[in-house]
Amino acid sequence: MSAASTSGAPPGGRLTFTPVTDELKVPRNAIPVGDGRLLISDQHGTVRVLDDGDLRPQPLLDIRRDVMPPTDSSLELGLAGVALAPDFAKTGNLYTFATEKPRRGNPSGTRQVSVLRRWTVDTKTLVADPDSGTELLAVPSRTKDHVGGDIAFDADGYLFIGLGSGTGDEAAQDSRQLAGKVLRIRPEANGKLTPAKNNPYASGGGDPRVLSMGYRNPWRADFDDEWGMLIAEPMFTESAQHVWSPLAGDNGGYPDLPSRTPACWQDGTVVPQCQTTEAGLAITPPSMEYDSGIGVIASGVVAVRGEAWGELDGKVLVSDWRGKILAATPGKAPWSYEEVATDLDLDGYLWELDGAGEEVYAMVTNENMGKGTVYQVTMQT
Length: 381
Hints:
Elements: E1 14-24, E2 27-32, E3 38-42, E4 46-51, E5 54-55, E6 61-62, E7 79-84, H1 88-91, E8 93-100, E9 112-122, E10 127-128, E11 134-141, E12 148-153, E13 159-163, E14 181-187, E15 193-195, E16 210-213, E17 220-224, E18 228-233, E19 241-244, H2 256-259, E20 265-266, E21 269-270, E22 288-290, E23 298-303, E24 316-320, E25 325-329, E26 336-340, E27 349-355, E28 360-365, E29 372-380
Antiparallel strand pairs: 1-29, 2-3, 3-4, 4-5, 4-6, 7-8, 8-9, 9-10, 9-11, 12-13, 13-14, 14-15, 14-16, 17-18, 18-19, 19-22, 20-21, 23-24, 24-25, 25-26, 27-28, 28-29
């Protein structure tokens, strides 16, 4: 088998997709607040509130005037990531990561700037102060694809950010640049970003904010207390799709991969092409990969927990653009997985899986990127 193998029978039951709202264009993140309300972001630049089953007319946040939205040729532009601070109930801090237009002073050839901002939200009304946006990080890019941009916090208050790199861009292997990296930083009250002390370059040799490097497009993220950061990274459609659980100092091998080989795992063994880069650096193989016979673009990753998930409790769900859902068993790489039956009648793209361990949502958008639906995903046995 070319990719990490499947094993055993598919889990009993199937995943049920219940529509929640169809009032967004490109729904991206779904964030349970913890009081029954749900925040849903639209890649075009809004964060909306679903309250008691109804989508409020007034957005929590509207940054459409500042955001470069997705287009037919640049599907990833826009509001790429939204996350609540771990102490959101106390501080009201909300973070966004979005593409904006190039600015004066950007390097020549810059086509978009990915910007991290912090906003202050009234936790009772769930309305953000529109003047509170504080810019914390700006990353100019010469490409309008491979944006990455999903963000997630761990329980210690460190923020993870996935940043993509252009096709064949050697910057992914340059520890001094942010392209093709996963960052781990702590946003401070004064607006500074403090790198984690055990980041590989915290003491020098590269950018101290970098946790791991060598990625094409780490564009979907989830943080799980047991398995840590989880990244879904779409590769070339004719190659295996990658899922990572990056640790400090890991190197995903891009851009050497996937051009050398369509898959890294062969019968549970890493193929020679996935062991070292051309520069001789050790490659960390993906925790899981699935080949092009299963799907074309890895579009979501989320760890699910709770009795309501039945046999899926403790698994990692991985979604593909074309609608399939895989249930992976995390642990020693390569993770085994099974395809899970669903009742999803897909017309467009399964764009994202998001939510908490017990509460998971699927975001679907049509192929014109102009009409989207959010579904709650549950296990029906």
